[in-house]
Design brief:
Helix content is about 40%, strand content about 25%. It is built from nine helices and twelve strands. The protein starts with a strand and ends with a strand. About 50% of the residues are buried. The radius of gyration is 20 Å and the shape is globular. The strands form two sheets. Strands 1, 2, 3, 4, 5, 6, 7 and 12 form an eight-stranded mixed beta sheet that branches. Strands 9-10-8-11 form a four-stranded antiparallel beta sheet. It is of the alpha+beta class and about 325 residues long. The structure holds (3R)-3-hydroxy-3-methyl-5-(phosphonooxy)pentanoic acid. The site of (3R)-3-hydroxy-3-methyl-5-(phosphonooxy)pentanoic acid has 12 residues, from helix 5.
């Protein structure tokens, strides 16, 4: 028996970094997915296969994962451990991951993988609800990134557009906006925790400036919420450009990112970093009138692809 589930990646439209200091962010899932296929094995091992290679542990070692070298595999072994504790089985398990989402560039690939693996592994026993899956997936991610807000896993599980802030948590934005983005990859791998730390240093050295930047960000996010309701692409694009200027001021852009944003804004409605920055990806807002030019333009200097909002979230295949 095979249990198959898939979950989408995400982009942050507005508010990354400022969200760490209590400001509302807006994010959405995208139509690029990770698929996890799980099946039982006769051998008493847990094996994870992905484009990054094969990783295996014996069932008896599942309680002792802290010292393992491939840290990024830890959440998957945690998910299996929990499922086995609840369903007391003695079989092994193999998980195969297939991804359409580039890894390590702010598109939520690790959260999507955790959501898909949680659904796929538990689907071998009995299917969990989306609420149960998102909780488990967040716990799994926290085995490697303790401060994880859970925003990525939530949007990956439920799909669509949502806002997130520290006080109110996640709120679905009930919209059917059919927005299209060109995602362009700087190919500069970033470490989210390092970039978040760098922004904290900036804030501590520039408290007054940071306060003003936060006020600007609040205004941008509020205006973006209205622009989304009105489906006003011109306004949304301008707000993305303004948001990018704030991200530049807190020091998380790079020369390559600046170049990509400059080129993207020549043909699209607007462009900005998505996620932690310090490399990673930019998004540019397009529609049928400018999609082709933007893809051609950015394609000369980066790997890029078209993405739309995904409204499905987690799917059991
Ligand atoms: O690069 P990503 O997609 O992991 O995004 C990080 C978003 C931050 O606001 C920089 C950090 C966070 O935990 O919200």
């Amino acid at each position: 028996m095979k249990s198959i589930a898939s979950a989408p990646g995400k982009i942050i439209l507005f508010g990354e970094h400022f969200v760490v200091y209590g400001i509302r962010a807006i994010l959405c899932s995208i139509d690029k997915r990770i698929t996890a296929t799980s099946q039982f094995l006769d051998e008493k091992i847990v094996r994870v296969r992905s484009s990054l290679g094969v990783s295996e542990v014996e069932l008896d070692s599942l309680n002792n994962l802290e010292n393992r070298q491939q840290k990024f595999m830890r959440p998957f072994f945690y998910i299996v451990k929990k499922a086995f504790e609840e369903n007391s089985t003695v079989k092994g398990i193999e998980i195969i991951l297939e991804s359409e989402i580039p890894a390590g560039v702010g598109l939520g690939s690790s959260s999507a993988a955790c959501v898909a693996v949680t659904a796929s592994v538990n689907g071998l026993f009995n299917k969990l609800s989306k609420d149960e899956i998102v909780k488990r997936a967040i716990q799994a991610e926290r085995t490697i990134f303790e401060q994880n807000s859970g925003a990525d896993s939530s949007v990956s599980t439920f799909g669509g557009l949502m806002s997130y802030d520290l006080k109110n948590g996640f709120q679905n934005i009930p919209s059917r906006n059919d927005l299209s983005f060109i995602i362009s990859n700087s190919a500069q791998i970033h470490d989210t925790q390092d970039v978040v730390r760098q922004v904290r240093n900036f804030k501590e050295k520039n408290e007054d400036i940071f306060k003003i930047l936060c006020e600007h960000e609040i205004e941008i996010v509020n205006n973006a919420t209205t622009a989304l309701k009105e489906n006003d692409l011109n306004k949304l694009g301008l707000l993305m450009v303004k948001n990018q200027e704030l991200l530049q001021q807190i020091g998380i852009s790079t020369e390559k990112i600046d170049l990509l944003v400059r080129e993207a804004t020549r043909t699209s409605y607007g462009a900005k970093i998505t996620g932690a920055g310090g490399g990673g990806c930019i998004i540019s807002l397009v529609d049928d009138s400018n999609r082709k030019y933007t893809l051609e333009n950015l394609g000369k200097i980066s790997d890029c692809f078209l993405a739309k909002i995904d409204f499905k979230g987690l799917i059991y295949e």
